[in-house]
Structures are given as C-alpha cells and as structure tokens.
C-alpha cells in the first residue's frame, strides 16, 4: 500500500484537474453591461459566471481568475464554496472585493473587444477558459447546452441562472448604405450591401423595425371617429398594416409628396378630426435595414432619412427631427400611445352624460411610465447636416395638452437603445450629454403663437430662476411632415446630475407632491414658517438658510408680472440638493429653489384681461382650489411679513420692470422669436390648423404686444395698491464718465449687457417707489477708483441707501487710480469649445494680452500618444476635457466679463496612468511675459482618486528648444493635492528672470508614494488656469497727466481729453513695438485707421507729464 499511494496521488493530480475542467466551468460572461443587472452598489459591471456541474461542492480558495494568460492568478478567490449544480457570479469591476458570502469583485475589468478569460485551480491547472471574443453591449457569451456546450451569443443574459436555449454562433455587422441620410435636390438610387457570406438584408420604408418574420405584414386596428359628445355614435374600427421587405436591388429615393398621405390621416383626438390635411403633405423617405442570417445574431438596425426637394437643405429654416417607429406603437386602438383609443371609448361608456373637456386620463395618450415607453429612431438635422442618429425611447408628455392633435414627446436616451446620451449642443451654455429631452407642442399656446413658454424662458435668463432651453424644430414621423415641435430641457434628476453634478435631490410639484426624493425638508420648513412669524428677524434669518430668497422673489415676480393664469395652484416645481450645507456654494447648499416651468398661459391671452391683478391673486387667503388655493400663496404671504424681504421684493420688481420687463425689451425679444418660426408657420397651419390661420396667429401676437406695452404701468399700480405706496418716483443715475465705471441700482448693473440697458446709458432714469429705500453702489472700471457722490447724496462711501419721497438724481464720481495693479495676462477658460472625448496634446489660452497665445504642451507617459479611437490605449494617460466646473480662480474679466456659470464651464483632466517605469505625464506651459513683471501662476485643481499626492512645479527661463528646469526662488515647488478643488498660487514675483521674458516655461508634474503606474480610470482635474503680471508699459511716471480716451474700444478714432494742443503721443503694440507717433493737435483726436484689430498702449506727453493707457481697436 505504501508503494501504491504516491502513484494514486499522481493520478489524482493528473486527472483530477481535468475532471474539474469538465464539470466546474466558466458558463457565461458579459463584457459590456449597460443595463442587464446591477451590483450591490447599483453599478452595471462586467461579470463572469461559474457553474458547478459536479455532484460535490467545490471550495475555490486559492483559485485564480484572469484576463491575462500570463498572469493566471491576477485575481485570487477567497474560500468561497460553490455548491453542486450552483452558479457563482463574479463582477469584473476593479473593486477587488473578496469577502466570503458577499458579492465578489475582481481587480480588473474585461474589454468588450475580447480577452481570454481563464479559471485556474490552486494547483495551477487550467480549469476553464473563454477565448478572446468581441461581444456587443448586453449580449452575453455562454455555453449551449448549459454547462457543457460550446460558447454562443445570447441576446438575453442569465446571470446566476441556467443559460437560455436559443443562442447564436455569429454576430453580424450592419449593412452599408451607398448614401447617408440628408437633403437632396434630385432623386437617386440607394444601394444596401453586406460583406457577410450567406447573409441577406431586410429593410422597411414605413418606419417599422425590419423583421424577417414580418415580410407578409402586421395588421392593426385604429379609429378615426370617437363619441365626443353624449349620444354620439362610436366610430368603426379601421385596419392598417406595416411590413418588412427583402432587399433585392437599389431603392429609388424620390420626393414622395405626390404619394397619398398615410399615418397623417389617422385621428389623434376624441373630437372631430378637422385637422386631417386636405392636401398631400411634404414627405421624406425613411429606410431602416438590418442584416440577417440563419444561426447568427441579426445586426443592429441602421436608419436613414432622405428628403428630396428642389430647395435641398434650404427647404426648412429650422432644424429637422425625423422620428421612425413601428406605427402600431403610436396608433393601435388598444395599445397605441398617441390616440384616444380604447381608453376613451371606455371612459365614454363609464361617463355617458359627461363632456370630456376639462377631464384627464380619458385616452390612451394619458398612459404614463416606463411600461408605455416605445423605442424609436431619432435623426436630427441642423442646417441640412445630420448631427444625431440614434435609437431613443418615446413617451407622451404633458397634462391636458395631450388632447391636442399634435402631441408632446418625452425623449429618452438609454443604453438598452444603444446610446446612453444624446451628444449634441441642443441649447447653448449646457453640457452636451443629454439623457432626456422634451419635444413640446407648446402646451396652452398650441393654437396661438407657439413660442410663449420659450419667450418666458428667455425673459428668465437674467434672473435667479433656472429656465429651460428652447429649440424649435420641424418634425417628421415615419417620413411624413408632423409640424413644429420644440426641444426643451426636462427638469428631472438627470438634468441636475448632468448640469450641476447633483446625485441626491428633492424635486416637488404643487403641494409637496414628490417627483424625486422626499418632501420631509420642505414640510419641516413650511411647518416652521407657520409657527414662527417672519417679522421676527431671527426667524427670517433662519429661513434664509432654507430657501434662496433671490430665486423665490424672481419666480413669483415673473409669474405675477406676466399673469400666469394656470398658477400658483398649478405648474409649480421646486427643488433642492438633499444636503444640510447652507454655507456651501450654489446650488449645493440645500436651499429650496423654484423652476421656470410651463408658462404657456401667460400674457393674459386666455382671460384677455391685461389688467388682471395677479399680485392680489398670488397673495390671497382662502383662494379656490384653482387657481390659487391657500397653500399656493402661503409662502409669499409669510415672506412679505418681513420688512427687509418686502422692500427687496418691491425693488426687485421695479428693477425688472425697468430692464427685462420693459415694453421695449419684451416686444423686441418677442419679435425676434416670432421671426424664427414665421417661415414655417404656413405649413404648420396647413398640417394641424393650429393656429387656425395666420389671422389668428397675428391676433394673439398683437395681444401679447399690447400686454407688453401696457403691463408696466398696470403692474406698478398693483404694487402701489398692495403695499400702500403713495407714488412712483423717477430715479436718475449718472457717472463722471462712461469710461470711469458704472452704478449698480439695487440688483441691476446699469451697463451694457443688462437687459434694456444701452451701450451708453448715462444719465439713466428708472421708475421706483416713494418711501421704499433703494441701494446704489459705485463700481469703478480698471484704472479708476470711486471718489464721491453728487446730487441726492454727497457721501464718500461707494454704497449708499436712499429713501426718497420724490424724484431724485445722483452721480457717481470716479478718479484715475495712481497705482499700477497686477492683471491677468493669460487665462484658460475650460468651456465647451474644447473638443470632448478627445485626447489633447496642446491647449491654447482662451484669453491673452500679448499677441500670441500661451500654450499647454502635454506629454503623456505612454509612447505613441495620442491614440485613435478603438485603440486599447485610447483615452489613457491623456489630457482631456471634463465636466467639472468650479468658481475657484475664475476671472470674469478674462472671459468677456461673463459671470461664472457652472453649466457653461467644463475642466481639463490628466488621466491615469500618471507614469510608467520610464516616463511621466507632464504639462508644460509656454508663454511670453514681454513687458510684464511680478509674474504669478494660479489654478484650481483636485485629485480624483489617483495615487498622486502632490503637484510638482519647476520652470525654465532660457531660450531655445531645450529647457533648463529649476525650482530656484520658488517658495514651494511641491503642492499637496486634495479631493476637492483647491486654489494653487505659484509666485514668481521674486524671480527676476521670469520678468519680461519671451521664453518662460512652467512645468507641472505629479508625485506620490503610491503606485503612479496604476490605470484605474481616475484623474487629476484642473480649471481656471491663469497667469498674472504687472505691465511695464503702463507704469505711470512721477509726472502724470490725467488724460481721458474715448470711445474705448474704438472702431477707428479716439478722442483725447485733458491735454494741451501741443501734446505728443506714441502708440505701441502690446509687445512694445511702436507703430505710430505724432502730435495730438487741436482736434484732440487720434486715428487708428489702418491698424489691425487688437490692444495697443497709448502714451501721451503733455506739459512735461507722461501717462500710458490701454486702448482697443475693434
């Protein structure tokens, strides 16, 4: 027996592993999980499934799982036991979790492009292996039969369960089209092709999904007549069908307008279908195609829309949306989401004596939720060019506006449809990765002007209320003209995540009705207000930590002024980030804020009563259930009990009437918006009879003009009546000179850029209220300082408060500043102009005083960088744009004077790995400091989970292509990183070699005690990078002349004041080259004609005194 035992052991080692290889197997893998199943953190991760086909439990302790054949123990199992006949799921997430009994996570992820996956026993025997195979998203690769068969593709993954019974041996590539979709002036033949042997192409021309099982067509039923009124007859069920076609030869693409109307002849309302077109409407051709083959997974469907018209891309003045969808999903009597359908007929049976007007939920189109979302394709054309073509989800949107013939859609991008986002700049100054949008029919404005809600959103831009974006479009459904629908934002959790990076949010509607999160905080706030009078300042101060009073005031002021008839008891939406952090920056402070939402019923077009007192309605007690129940006026009534808020509210109202709400500004804005859609209105009217005709449109437009013209005086009367104010008063504000500075009146800057403020506004007059204190602040321009007030006040403080009973005038007097201050020389504003998802090698400054840009030259630690998309190293060790705004170090003056706007800002990221064994990621800032001294380098930065602990700074001042790096003179060259944005300042003012230097370079690197070669997808993010300095050209002499130059900027001629006729001048470029000189002369004018646009330095010598000023030639 002693001699036999070793032999038995050898037999076990040799054959035992093989036995396991036949019975303990990798059974299924998923390498791109976008929606199939989430892990315990809610993340969608790749995974590997093991199956124990033996009759005994297997302890996996010491087993290895790897995506690298050379590293079989890349990740090692804990002592996890898998029972006989059981499955074990291992997430390949890079989270590296090995707690027995808990979900297991490897320290690597799997590439969907294909990697060999190997299971290795503790004795280093290969147990099971999956060959490297490219696998599409949410398609699994598993054994068929389960546990024993070869690997095939499954369209439905079965994590932790037996594999399906239908698998595919091959994945087919989509067909190729001989011509992409778009606009064409002549007919042509479209060819489809596939390179796959034995495959065929199935296509459709009716918008439906190509299906080899639908070559004979699918029939559905619909109705064109419904029992609108009690006693009306029920219309007959009609029949339509749609079908797929086997491709046998080229498809002739023509202008189909002469062909009979199809789905446009289906009724979409319970009332008479008077809107069905009398004539043939304009039509495009939608071609949808896929490749099929027995035993293979069909290809993805390719959809293209073709418009043939003599005008080509000039056929429409607006962007074009083409929606293609299997028509039964919209129009089927039982299940179609776009028609009254069976739901209306059932409502009529249940309510035989009622009229439907004013009722809700009485048609199929009121069905809500994911169950009624329908997959479709959306193609978007801008100026004739296709910018979006992807599958999306469609649901109906809106309240009672669903009753209109042309309905609004919610548009959803989802991974299960192909793309998680719609990546296009639908609206300016927003991130472009939209998950959800609304295609809106204009709601209550459907029969009137089609832009009233959008007009309100534009008039909210210079307020503290978030306003939805707006983009009108011409829309097609399955190639048939579908009229004007407008893209707008959808205010939901996805919006706040995308725009503000808010993950946990409360969104409420109406009376604390929860849309996201919960209402606990809001109810606690209103309970506090109900029991704590806000006339007590301490109580009011506490409430200011709970709600944004500026937003609150602007929201109520706007709805009151524009007389929102469907408010305040309806269309009210408010939100907060779910945090308790009142000292945090906007909007992460946890305060409640109100949203610009559904403002179609404004401008009194429904009541036709321009004099309607909306202020009284919004502050009434015991109002009716609609429009102003008690709860809807509670907060404003309580806030107005505080004198400080009351005065702010009154002054803010006055400020807005003087600017944004002025008759001139509203009418001008209205005219601009009308002109955008006017070229498309005739076709919209022919299609939908909405507006009924151009006369109707002009009536409502004219009424809105009358409202805009008359409302200022009416609203001031309402304010005086509400607050017992005796009179309006005129406030006239002036400054010593336009070039010196400006005045802020209460909440508005009296300067160009503020709504309704002219380029040269002074003296400026606004209408305010007697006895209500107003606040004025003098704000100097660069080179000037505030001296004193003249007129109604002679104070020397820059901010004053005046309580006046009659008209008054006041002037802010500024004087030149004697000191020469540091100024931004270069600035990198990280905005949407930076290409997204693109590894960068250089990045030029967005602002520069010298004639040349400053450049960030980026060197990656990976050789061959940058890599093209599809390369495994694409977007690794790269410098790229990132959506990560911060106000830290933002310089408005270096960004055209624009205020910090989080939604418009991005950032720049340096991605892992930060180093290899022989190289490191570096950023080298190269620029000239000619004519500047006291150089300072600053930026905001944060570490997002990398192993770096510090930013390392050095510099070079030598000429030539080979820098000499040094840290000499720097207070510190190692700057500690933090997880949150922090401000970093590097002071070169004591390093004279950095002054007036055409070859200054600053190098940025990273250091840390951890492994800098890790590549886990983390990054270090930078923002608002700036270089400051003090001009050597503009330093004043000891003998100064306080001369003035205007206009500045100039188109050609500048006037010079406060100099003698004998004064001489020299004109320099910003880098010190003199381009012009001479005498100022008796005309006191200097011509810049012939000079290129840019910044110059004008040096004047008069009466032995010299001074230099910057001027800008446009």
Can you tag this structure with a few keywords?
1114 residues, Immunoglobulin-like, 6 domains, seven-stranded mixed beta barrel, disordered N terminus
Radius of gyration: 35 Å
Number of strands: 66
Average pLDDT over all residues: 93
Quote the beta fraction: 25-35%
Q: Please state the overall shape, judged from the principal axes of the Cα atoms.
A: globular
Q: What is the helix fraction of residues, given as a range?
A: 10-25%
Distance between the ends: 103 Å
Task: Tally the helices.
Answer: 13
Count of structural domains = 6
Q: How does the helix and strand content classify structurally? A: alpha+beta
Largest sheet: 7 strands, mixed, barrel
Placed side by side, the strands forming the largest sheet appear as 26-27-28-29-32-34-33
Low-confidence stretches: 1-22, 1035-1041
Structural features, described:
By secondary structure, the protein is of the alpha+beta class. The chain has 6 domains: 145 residues, Lamin Tail domain (Immunoglobulin-like), CATH 2.60.40.1260; 249 residues, no CATH class; 221 residues; 89 residues; 209 residues, Jelly Rolls (Sandwich); 70 residues, Immunoglobulin-like (Sandwich). It has 13 helices and 66 strands. It has a 7-stranded mixed barrel with strand order 26-27-28-29-32-34-33. Strands 47, 49, 51, 52, 54, 57 and 59 form a 7-stranded antiparallel β-sheet that branches. The chain has a 6-stranded mixed β-sheet with strand order 8-7-2-1-11-12. Helix 12 runs antiparallel to helix 13. The longest helix has 30 residues. It is globular. The termini are far apart.
């Amino acid at each position: 027996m002693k001699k036999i035992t070793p032999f038995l052991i050898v037999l076990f080692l040799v054959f035992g592993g093989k036995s396991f290889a036949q019975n303990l197997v990798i059974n299924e893998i998923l390498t791109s999980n976008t929606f199939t199943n989430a892990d315990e953190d809610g993340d969608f991760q790749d995974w590997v499934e093991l199956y124990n086909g033996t009759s005994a439990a297997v302890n996996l302790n010491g087993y290895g799982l790897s995506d690298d054949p050379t590293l079989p123990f890349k990740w090692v199992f804990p002592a996890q036991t898998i029972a006989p006949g059981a499955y074990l799921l291992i997430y390949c997430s890079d989270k590296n979790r090995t707690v027995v009994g808990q979900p297991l996570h490897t320290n690597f992820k799997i590439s969907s492009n294909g990697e060999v996956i190997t299971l290795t026993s503790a004795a280093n025997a290969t147990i099971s292996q999956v060959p490297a195979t490219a696998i599409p998203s949410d398609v699994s690769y598993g054994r068929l039969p389960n546990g024993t068969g070869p690997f095939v593709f499954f369209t439905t993954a079965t994590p932790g369960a037996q594999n399906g019974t239908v698998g595919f041996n091959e994945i087919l590539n989509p067909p190729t089209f001989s011509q992409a979709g778009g606009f064409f002036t002549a007919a042509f033949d479209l060819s489809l092709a596939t390179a796959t042997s034995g495959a065929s192409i199935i296509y459709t021309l009716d918008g439906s999904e190509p299906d080899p099982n639908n070559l004979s067509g699918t029939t559905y039923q619909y109705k064109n007549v419904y029992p609108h009124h009690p006693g009306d007859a029920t219309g007959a069920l009609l029949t339509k069908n749609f079908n797929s076609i086997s491709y046998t030869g080229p498809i002739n693409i023509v202008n189909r307008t002469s062909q009979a109307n199809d789905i446009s002849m289906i009724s979409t309302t319970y009332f008479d279908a008077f809107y069905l077109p009398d004539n043939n409407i304009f039509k495009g051709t939608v071609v949808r195609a896929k490749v099929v083959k027995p035993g293979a997974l069909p290809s993805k469907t390719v959809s293209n829309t073709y418009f043939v018209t003599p005008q080509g891309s000039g056929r429409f003045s607006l962007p074009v949306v083409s929606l293609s969808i299997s028509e039964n999903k919209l129009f089927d009597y039982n299940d179609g989401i776009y028609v009254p359908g069976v739901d209306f007929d059932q409502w009529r049976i249940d309510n035989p004596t009622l009229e439907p007007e004013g009722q809700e939920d009485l048609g199929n189109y009121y069905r809500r939720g994911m169950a009624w979302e329908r997959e479709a394709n959306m193609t978007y054309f801008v100026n004739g060019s296709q910018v979006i073509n992807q599958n999306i989800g469609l649901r109906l949107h809106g309240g009672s506006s669903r009753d209109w013939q042309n309905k609004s859609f919610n548009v959803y991008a989802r991974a299960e449809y192909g793309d998680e986002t719609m990546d296009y700049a639908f609206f300016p100054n927003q991130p472009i990765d939209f998950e959800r949008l609304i295609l809106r029919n204009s709601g209550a404005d459907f029969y009137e002007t089609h832009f009233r809600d959008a007009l309100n959103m534009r008039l909210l831009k210079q307020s503290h209320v978030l306003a939805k974006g707006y983009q009108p479009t011409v829309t097609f459904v399955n190639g048939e003209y579908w009229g004007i629908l407008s893209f707008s934002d959808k205010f939901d959790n996805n919006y706040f995540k995308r725009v503000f990076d808010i993950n946990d949010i409360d969104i409420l509607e109406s009376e604390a009705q929860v849309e996201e999160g919960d209402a606990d905080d809001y109810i606690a706030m209103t309970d506090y207000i109900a029991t704590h009078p806000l006339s007590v300042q301490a109580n009011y101060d506490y409430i200011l930590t709970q709600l944004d009073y500026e937003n609150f005031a602007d929201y109520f002021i706007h709805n009151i002024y524009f007389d929102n008839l469907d408010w305040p008891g309806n269309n009210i939406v408010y939100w907060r980030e779910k945090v308790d952090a009142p000292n945090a920056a906007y909007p992460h402070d946890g305060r409640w804020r109100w949203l610009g939402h559904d403002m179609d019923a404004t401008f009194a077009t429904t009541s036709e009563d321009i004099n309607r007192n909306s202020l009284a309605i919004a502050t009434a007690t015991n109002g009716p259930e609609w429009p102003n129940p008690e709860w809807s006026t509670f907060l404003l009534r309580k806030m107005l009990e505080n004198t400080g808020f009351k005065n702010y509210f009154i002054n803010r109202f006055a400020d807005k009437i003087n600017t944004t709400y002025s008759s001139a500004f509203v009418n001008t804005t209205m005219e601009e918006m009308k002109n955008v859609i006017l070229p498309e209105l005739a076709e919209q009217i022919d299609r939908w009879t909405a507006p009924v005709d151009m006369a109707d449109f002009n009536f409502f437009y004219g009424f809105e003009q009358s409202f805009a013209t008359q409302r200022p005086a009416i609203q001031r009367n309402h304010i005086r009546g509400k607050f017992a104010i005796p009179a309006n008063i005129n406030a006239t504000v002036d400054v010593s000179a336009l070039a010196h500075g400006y005045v802020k009146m209460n909440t508005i800057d009296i300067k160009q850029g503020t709504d309704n403020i002219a380029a040269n506004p002074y003296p400026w007059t606004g209408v305010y209220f007697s006895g209500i204190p107003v606040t004025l602040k003098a704000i100097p321009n660069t080179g000037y300082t505030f001296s004193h007030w003249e007129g109604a006040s002679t104070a020397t403080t820059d901010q004053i408060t005046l309580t006046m009973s009659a008209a008054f005038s006041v002037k802010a007097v500024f004087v030149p500043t004697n000191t020469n201050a540091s100024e931004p020389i270069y600035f990198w504003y990280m905005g949407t102009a930076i290409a997204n998802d693109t590894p960068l090698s250089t990045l030029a400054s967005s602002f520069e005083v010298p004639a040349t840009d400053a450049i960030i030259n980026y060197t990656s630690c990976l050789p061959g960088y940058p890599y093209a998309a599809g390369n495994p190293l694409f977007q690794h060790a790269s410098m790229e744009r990132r959506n990560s705004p911060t106000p830290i170090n933002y310089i408005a003056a270096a960004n055209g004077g624009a205020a910090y706007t989080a939604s418009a800002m991005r950032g720049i990221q340096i991605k892992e790995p930060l180093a290899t064994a022989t190289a490191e990621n570096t950023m080298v800032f190269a620029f000239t400091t000619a004519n500047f001294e006291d150089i300072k380098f600053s930026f905001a930065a944060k570490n997002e989970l990398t192993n770096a602990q510090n930013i390392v700074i050095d510099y070079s001042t030598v000429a030539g292509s080979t820098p000499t790096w040094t840290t000499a003179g720097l207070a510190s060259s190692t700057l500690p990183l933090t997880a949150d944005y922090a401000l970093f300042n590097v002071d070169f003012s004591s390093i004279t070699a950095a002054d007036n230097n055409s070859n200054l370079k600053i190098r940025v690197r990273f250091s840390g005690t951890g492994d800098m070669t890790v590549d886990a997808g983390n990054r270090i993010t930078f923002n608002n990078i700036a270089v400051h300095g003090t001009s050597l050209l503009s330093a004043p002499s000891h003998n100064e002349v306080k001369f003035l130059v205007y206009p500045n900027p100039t188109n050609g001629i500048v006037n010079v004041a406060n100099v003698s006729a004998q004064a001489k001048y020299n004109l320099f470029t910003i880098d010190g080259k003199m381009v012009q000189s001479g005498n100022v002369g008796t005309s006191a004018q200097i011509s810049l004609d012939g000079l290129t646009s840019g910044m110059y330095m004008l040096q004047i010598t008069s009466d032995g005194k010299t001074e230099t000023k910057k001027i800008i030639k446009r």
